[in-house]
Amino acid sequence: MDPLSLFGLFAVSAMLLCYALEHRSHWFILAFAGACALGSIYGFLQGAWPFGLVEAIWAGVALRRWMLTSRALRPDRG
């Protein structure tokens, strides 16, 4: 297996693991966003730009979800 395929396998495996563990901590949502970004990079490096584009969008969606979840978990400062 070449290094690019190993990188892709790592990215997709990390996405799956983080998605499965999201209910345990909001930090897994952030990790999922990072794994989606890695998947996006993999897609573009592989030449599958539609995959790279969709994964970049998923990374943005997950990052926004993490920000909203983090804000909801913060104690009220008022």
Low-pLDDT residue spans: none
Order of helices and strands: HHH
Biggest sheet: strands, sense, closure? Answer: none
Mean pLDDT reading: 94
- The count of DSSP E runs of length 2 or more, i.e. the number of strands, is 0
Estimate the helix proportion, in percent. Answer: over 70%
Kindly estimate the percentage of residues that lie in beta strands according to DSSP: under 5%
Any idea what the radius of gyration is? 14 Å
Structure description:
- With 78 residues, the protein is mostly helical.
- Helices cover 83% and strands 0% of the residues.
- It is built from three helices and no strands.
- The chain is elongated.
- The N and C termini lie far apart (55 Å).
- The mean pLDDT is 94.
Can I get a quick summary?
The protein is mainly α. It has helices at residues 3-21, 26-46, 49-73.
Topology:
Elements: H1 3-21, H2 26-46, H3 49-73
Helix pairs in contact: 1-2, 2-3
Identify the notable features of this structure and list them briefly.
about 80 residues, mainly alpha, 3 helices, elongated
